[in-house]
Amino acid sequence: MTVPALLTATAPSPLTAAYTRLAEVFPGLRAEVLTDDVAAPSGGGWVGAAELAAGGAVLDDFLAWDEAQVLRDYGTQARPDVVASFGLHRYAWPACLLVTLPWFTHRRVPRIPVEDVSFHRGLGHLTLRVSEFACLPDDPAAGLPGARVVPDESALRAEVLDAVAQHIGPVLDGFRPRMRRGKRALWGMATDEIVEGLWYVAHLLGEEDRAMRELELLLPGTTKPYVGTAGFRELTGPNGESLPTRDRASCCLFYTLRPEDTCVTCPRTCDADRVRRLTPAP
User: pTM value?
Assistant: First the structure.
């Protein structure tokens, strides 16, 4: 996929280094911080997070892409709630990284209300405007405009969960009428998006083990509205090797299209199948 140049020559942000690193290891996804004098993109495939949160025609158009993709790739019509689940995942997975990745790489946590984020799914491109971010006292960015210093790592983890909830909560509300899921199930999906997005990118960064430890501290299972823990556990391969896995707090519903082809972290996937699929081919 050809990735176009940046929308504008924007000034560096305290978050730029984290998002630059993301593009380096995962070229299919980019995040760009806009300055106040740069308009958010619109039209031509762009959608505002606030528009998804509002539901209505914009969300219908957004989900039409998922419905067509399922029909094209699997030759079957997906249930409306399955389509909505796919669409939510395809937005929430990258959106959560806007918060979790700069926390993981630089200990900086941006606040990103839905009004300040736009997404182009075809380009894998997010734009955001950041007026406030949390950081630790020894961060070189602590004196910058918009910095809000918190005392320690525990407080910074609380900022991560609050920032994600501030952004993703309205989006869940927008999707909810189209899904056969209650509030708890939707927040289980949010928990999974936080964990699996950072876990995947951290693997690309060569820091998978640290990410697993950080995520276990972030999501101990007692923080509302999130549901469940990070869910990591360890299996043993045929030669005694360690095979990290996790149990999702929710189901992506892919089994409704291919019952025999569940995700490796799906609660429906037994440990024997996980070991088989996680063991490298000889």
Answer: 0.93
Does the CA dihedral 90-96-100-102 come out positive or negative?
positive
Residues 30 and 125: beta-carbon distance below 8 Å: yes
Domain extents for the chain?
16-228
For residue 142, give the amino acid letter.
A
pLDDT tens string 110-130? 999 999 999 999 999 999 999
Question: Kind and range of the H or E element at 272?
Answer: helix 271-278
State the pairing for strand pair 133-135/108-110: antiparallel
Query: At residue 2, does pLDDT exceed 90?
Result: no
CATH for 16-228, among 1.10.510, 1.10.10, 1.10.1200, 3.40.50?
1.10.510
E runs forming strands in the chain: 30-33, 46-48, 108-110, 117-120, 125-128, 133-135, 147-149, 232-236, 242-246
Residues 6+ apart with CB under 8 A from 236: 242, 243, 275
**215-244: pLDDT as tens digits:** 999 999 989 999 989 999 999 999 899 999
